[in-house]
Amino acid sequence: MLSVISYTGIIASIWIVAGVIIASLFYPNYSHSRQFCSELGAAGSPTQKLSPLINNYPLGLLFILFGYYLISIYAESTATVAIGIMVVIHGLSTWVCGFFPMDADPYTTTPTIPCQIHSWSGVVLLLSFIVAPAIAVFSDTNPITNPTAIRVFSLICLLGCFYFTYRLSVSFKERTNPGTHQRLSYGFQILWLFGYSVFMIA
Known about the structure:
mainly alpha; about 70% helix
């Protein structure tokens, strides 16, 4: 059973890309460059109910299962257990973001309570996959046979995430193409998950 669960990190990395693309097909005139991923499940959107069903809920489960795998198999490694906990937190935050939709207008000055919960959960979601690769970068107790490779890879993913998160904040203020930068920012986090998963089962 655990051998199957070991692939859930890889599956989640692929699933999230496919899920967003599929959900967007049911949202007329949806723009991946100008709109956030969360707008697929926003209150009143054409895909409000569909998006969480094919994205947040199954993805949350996959993240939690992979985190459980790391905690269970590498219990002797403090660093890996900590990474596993971060992955579980990421999964729980994914569920919360799906259950509490953002407002239809991401620029609203008076967000609803569900939108505020969604936003704060999104912050936790973002931070969990900043802390996890940071642990991989600085840990001396990583069980991977080639720790230098995973450290360099994790550092590259962190720098990519930081850069495009900054670009996202600028783009959001200028109301240009925040969707592109959000996808690239989170894309580096998902790339890290995919790479880390491959390293752990290689």
